[in-house]
Design a protein that fits this description.
Radius of gyration of chain A: 21 Å
Structural class of chain A: mainly alpha
Distance between the termini of chain A: 27 Å
Order of helices and strands of chain A: HHHHHHHHEEEEEHHHHEHHH
Helix content of chain B: 25-40%
Strand content of chain B: 15-25%
Structural class of chain B: alpha/beta
Low-confidence stretches of chain A: 1-5
Number of strands of chain A: 6
Oligomer: heterodimer
Low-confidence stretches of chain B: none
Radius of gyration of chain B: 19 Å
Largest interface: A-B, 30 and 44 residues
Order of helices and strands of chain B: EEEHEEHEHHHHEHEHEEHH
Strand order of the largest sheet of chain B: 6-7-8-3-9-10
Strand order of the largest sheet of chain A: 1-6
Strand content of chain A: under 5%
Shape of chain B: globular
C-alpha cells in the first residue's frame, strides 16, 4: 500500500479522496461552532465560482476586467425577477398570463441566469475588443458601475429593479421537489437549510472547476493563452482574436451569472449595494493573489481572501477583549488592513501569485 | 504571368505621414522558390512584409495568392489564405511550452464542432481525437526542426537559435502555402546559420514556398532562387542572386556613389 501511495497517480487519487472527505464533513464541523460559520463556507464557494469565472477572462485570456461584478449582479437580478412576485406586481399583463407566478425549475433557471450573464459579457466584449491593458481595465470598471447604477435607478418610469430598496421575497431554490428553505430529513441525520445550500454550491463549484480545467487544456484554451502572451502573434497564427475574446467574456460572465443566481436564492433578497466596485476589486485580487491562470491558485486565493477576513470579523472582537480587555481596532478596519497587507506581501514575496501561473503540461 | 506564380504584389504603396515607406512595389514569388528580399536598413523591407501579411493595411496595391486576390486588411484572414510569417523580433508565446506553441499554430486548421467550447467541456470523442492529432502533428513538426527534446520547455527558456526555429515550426503548423520569414538568421552564429539553411532547403523541398528578408548576404546568395532589392521603398533590382551581386544600382545602394567599380 505504501508502494502504491508513492506512485504519483495514486498520490493524486488519495489527495482527491482526502479533500473530498474534508469538503463533505466541513459544514458539519463548522456547524458545531455556529450557523454563521456554515454561511461563511457557503459564501466562500460562491466566491470560488466568481474567481474561477474571472480567471477565464483575466487569467486565461489576459483581459483585465475590473467590472466583473456586473455579471454577478445580472445573474442575481435575473434570478430575483423570475423567482419573486416583483414583476407580477408591476406588470398586470404578466400576472394575468402567469397567475401562479413563473415557477421555473432549477435546471432552467440556472442556465438562463448563466445565459443572460453571458449575453452581457458579449455586450461588454464588443466595444472593448480593441482595447488592451489599462484602457480595457478602465472601460470594464465603468461597465461594472453602469450596471450597478442601472439597478439602482430602474425603478422609474417602469419599476423593473425596485431601485435601491432591492427585490425581496425571492423564492428559495427547489432541488428535486425539495425546497432548500426546509431542512431535509435523511433518516439518521437531518440536513439544515444552510448545509443543503452548501452542498448545492459545492456541486456547482466543482462543475465550474471541471469546466475551467477542461477549457484550459483545449484548443480554445490555448488560443486564449496565445492572445494573453502575444496578441499579434496569435493573429498571425490565424486565430480570430475577436471571436475568441468574446467567447472568453461570455464564458467568464456565465460563471458569474450562476454565482449571482445562487447568491440571490440564498439571501432571498438582492439590492444594488451588494455589487459595488469593491467586490470587483476583491475578485481581481483573488485571481492575482492565487496565481493568474492557475485554477488551483485561484481557488486558494478566493478561499483565503474571503474566509480569513470573515473569520476575523467573528474572532477579532473576542480575541481583542480577551487579550487587551477592550476593542482597539474595529473588525471591519482590521479586515481591510489585513487585506492590504496580504496584497503587499504577495507582491513582494511571490509577485506571480501563491501558485505559479501555470504548470506546463507534459 | 505564369501559373507558377504563388504570390503576386502589384503597385503596393504605403506612406506614414510624409514618408513613403513602400513606393509602388511590384513583386512576384514563384511557386516552390525561395525568394529573398534585401536592402539597406530603412529600405522598407519589413513594411512590405507587414503589408503582404496584413499586419498593416496598404494605401493601395493588389495582392494575389495562387492567382486569387486576397485582402490584406486582417492578419488572421491572410494566415487563413495561406501566408504565415515569423517576426524580426521573435514573438513566441513565451509562457507556453515549445509543444504548446506549435499546437496553437494548428488552431485554424482544426476548426470543427468538436473542437469548440462545447466539445472541450464535454470531452467528446471527436474532441479527444482532434487533440491527439494536434499534439502528434505538433510533435512531428518539432522533430522536423530538430527541437523534439525541448517540447516541454517553456519557449522563453530556449536559446535564441532554438526560438527562431520554434517560430518556424509554429508557422509551418498552419499549413502555409507561403512561409514568410523576417530575418530568421539574425543573431545566429555560423553553425546555427548552417542548420537554418539546411532546414529552409528541406522546407522548400517538401513543397512550401519561402519569402525571406535577410541581412546576411552570404546566406541569401546561397539559398535564394530569386532576389528583390529594395531601397527607399522602391525596387531597384530583381533577378537571380548572381546577377544581383553585380547590379550597379545594388552596389550603389549598399556602398554609395563611386564604389560601383569595386
Amino acid at each position: 500500500m505504501t508502494a502504491l501511495a508513492s506512485q504519483p497517480r495514486h498520490k493524486a487519487l488519495w489527495a482527491v479522496l482526502l479533500i473530498g472527505c474534508v469538503l463533505l464533513v466541513l459544514p458539519f464541523a463548522a456547524g458545531l461552532l455556529g450557523n454563521a460559520w456554515v454561511r461563511i463556507l457557503a459564501f466562500a464557494l460562491l466566491y470560488v465560482m466568481l474567481a474561477l469565472g474571472l480567471n477565464i477572462v483575466v487569467g486565461y485570456a489576459g483581459l483585465l476586467d475590473l467590472g466583473y461584478v456586473a455579471f454577478y449582479a445580472v445573474g442575481a437580478y435575473v434570478y430575483a425577477l423570475l423567482s419573486s412576485p416583483h414583476l407580477l406586481e408591476q406588470f398586470p399583463l404578466l400576472a394575468a398570463t402567469f397567475p401562479q407566478g413563473f415557477h421555473l425549475p432549477i435546471w432552467i433557471l440556472i442556465p438562463l441566469c448563466a445565459a443572460c450573464a453571458a449575453l452581457f459579457g458579449v455586450l461588454l466584449g464588443f466595444p472593448v475588443l480593441r482595447l488592451r491593458g489599462d484602457y480595457l481595465a478602465i472601460v470594464t470598471l465603468g461597465f461594472g458601475e453602469i450596471i450597478r447604477i442601472f439597478m439602482n435607478n430602474l425603478n422609474a418610469p417602469i419599476n423593473l429593479t425596485n431601485g435601491p430598496q432591492g427585490i425581496t421575497g425571492i423564492a428559495p431554490l427547489e432541488v428535486m421537489g425539495h425546497p432548500l428553505s426546509q431542512p431535509l430529513d435523511m433518516g439518521i441525520f437531518k440536513l439544515s437549510t444552510l448545509e443543503l445550500h452548501y452542498f448545492l454550491f459545492l456541486a456547482l463549484t466543482l462543475l465550474v472547476l471541471l469546466i475551467s480545467l477542461r477549457l484550459q487544456d483545449s484548443r480554445i484554451g490555448r488560443a486564449w493563452m496565445a492572445i494573453r502572451e502575444d496578441e499579434t502573434a496569435a493573429k498571425a497564427m490565424g486565430i480570430p482574436t475577436r471571436n475568441v475574446k468574446l467567447i472568453a467574456f461570455a464564458m467568464g460572465a456565465s460563471f458569474g451569472g450562476v454565482a449571482g443566481a445562487m447568491f440571490s436564492a440564498f439571501q432571498g433578497f438582492v439590492s444594488p449595494e451588494s455589487f459595488g466596485l469593491m467586490e470587483s476589486i476583491v475578485l481581481v485580487a483573488m485571481v492575482v493573489l492565487g496565481g493568474m491562470g492557475n485554477v488551483w491558485g485561484v481557488v486558494l486565493g478566493a478561499v483565503l481572501l474571503y474566509a480569513i477576513p470573515e473569520a476575523l470579523r467573528h474572532l477579532a472582537r473576542p480575541i481583542q477583549l480577551q487579550l487587551l480587555g477592550e476593542e482597539w481596532i474595529a473588525p471591519e478596519a482590521l479586515r481591510m488592513l489585513l487585506f492590504g497587507l496580504s496584497m503587499v506581501l504577495i507582491m513582494l514575496l511571490r509577485p506571480r501569485g501563491i501558485l505559479s501561473p501555470r504548470t506546463p503540461s507534459p | 504571368m505564369s501559373a507558377a506564380t504563388l504570390l503576386r504584389v502589384q503597385h503596393a504603396c504605403k506612406r506614414f505621414g510624409g514618408l513613403v515607406a513602400v513606393d509602388d512595389v511590384s513583386l512576384a514569388v514563384k511557386t516552390g522558390s525561395i525568394t529573398g528580399l534585401i536592402g539597406p536598413n530603412g529600405a522598407g523591407k519589413t513594411t512590405l512584409f507587414n503589408l503582404i501579411t496584413g499586419l498593416i493595411p496598404p494605401d493601395s496595391g493588389t495582392f494575389h495568392l495562387h492567382e486569387k486576390r486576397y485582402d490584406p486588411t486582417s492578419v488572421h484572414n491572410v494566415a487563413r489564405a495561406g501566408i504565415c510569417r515569423t517576426f524580426q523580433n521573435i514573438r513566441l508565446f513565451s509562457d507556453m511550452t515549445a509543444l504548446e506553441n506549435v499546437m496553437v499554430g494548428r488552431h485554424m486548421r482544426t476548426q470543427s464542432l468538436h473542437t469548440g467550447v462545447m466539445g472541450a467541456i464535454l470531452r467528446t470523442r471527436g474532441f479527444r481525437a482532434a487533440e491527439r492529432h494536434i499534439r502528434e502533428r505538433a510533435q512531428a513538426l518539432l522533430d522536423y526542426v530538430g527541437l523534439s527534446n525541448l517540447a516541454t520547455h517553456r519557449s522563453k527558456s530556449l536559446s535564441y537559435g532554438d526560438q527562431r526555429r520554434l517560430e518556424i515550426a509554429r508557422a509551418l503548423a498552419t499549413d502555409p502555402k507561403l512561409l514568410a520569414l523576417d530575418e530568421p538568421a539574425a543573431g545566429m552564429n555560423a553553425t546555427e546559420k548552417n542548420t537554418l539553411r539546411d532546414l529552409l532547403l528541406r522546407i522548400r523541398a517538401d513543397g512550401t514556398t519561402i519569402l525571406i528578408i535577410e541581412h546576411d548576404v552570404k546566406l541569401i546568395m546561397g539559398l535564394c532562387d530569386a532576389v528583390t532589392v529594395l531601397d527607399h521603398g522602391q525596387v531597384i533590382a530583381q533577378g537571380l542572386p548572381q546577377d544581383i551581386q553585380r547590379h550597379p544600382a545594388v552596389l550603389e545602394a549598399y556602398l554609395g556613389h563611386g564604389h560601383t567599380h569595386v
